[in-house]
Design goal:
The chain is mainly alpha-helical and 158 residues long. It has 2 domains: 67 residues, no CATH class; 79 residues, no CATH class. Strand 3 and strand 4 form a beta hairpin. Helix 3 packs across helix 5. The N and C termini lie far apart (50 Å). The N terminus is likely disordered.
Length: 158
C-alpha cells in the first residue's frame, strides 16, 4: 500500500481527493488488480484485503473479486435486489436517466404493455440501474434510488 499524500504525489496519477479515508491507496488497484465489495458498507477493496479500508468490517464473507464494476457482466450486490418504486411510478423518465432503454417499451400502443412494463421495471429496475453505470458504492446507489422513489410517490400523489 502507498500511504499518505506524498506517496500518491510521487506516483503522479492519483489526485489528493482520491485518497481513502485513512490516507491509503491500494497498490493492486493502481496496477489494475481485482477488487471486491465490503458486505457492510459496499466500498471497494483489494482482493487481498482482510478488512474493509473504510469501515473495518471483515472481508472473509465478501463477494468474489471482480474487475467488472458495471455493465452487462457487473457484479450485482445482493442488498440492492428488490422492488424499485421510482422505476415503477416514473417508468420511462427513470429509465432514460438511468440509461435503461427497455423502459421506452411503455410507449408501444398495445393494450396492457405499459402496465406490464411498469411492473417489470419495478421488479428489475434496481439490477438494470446498477448495470447501467458505475456507482460510488451500494449506499450511494440506495440513496439515489430512494430519492427516485420519493419523486415517484409524489408524482403518483401517494
Amino acid at each position: 500500500m502507498v500511504r499518505g499524500k506524498g506517496g500518491a504525489a510521487e506516483l503522479g496519477t492519483i489526485c489528493e481527493g482520491s485518497l481513502g479515508e485513512h490516507g491509503f491507496i491500494p497498490v493492486s488497484l493502481l496496477e489494475g488488480g481485482h477488487t471486491m465489495y465490503c458486505p457492510k458498507c459496499g466500498s471497494e477493496n483489494t482482493e487481498q484485503a482482510l478488512f474493509c479500508a473504510k469501515c473495518g468490517a471483515s472481508l472473509k464473507a465478501a463477494s468474489k473479486p471482480s474487475r467488472v464494476l458495471f455493465g452487462e457482466r457487473a457484479q450485482i450486490p445482493p442488498e440492492i435486489r428488490g422492488w424499485n418504486w421510482g422505476a415503477f411510478f416514473l417508468g420511462w423518465i427513470w429509465g432514460v436517466s438511468h440509461r435503461v432503454w427497455v423502459s421506452l417499451l411503455q410507449f408501444i400502443p398495445i393494450p396492457l404493455v405499459g402496465i406490464i412494463m411498469a411492473f417489470v421495471l419495478g421488479v428489475k429496475g434496481n439490477e438494470w440501474a446498477w448495470d447501467s453505470r458505475k456507482w460510488d458504492n451500494v449506499g450511494h446507489f440506495k440513496k439515489t434510488q430512494r430519492n427516485w422513489a420519493y419523486a415517484g410517490f409524489a408524482a403518483a400523489g401517494v
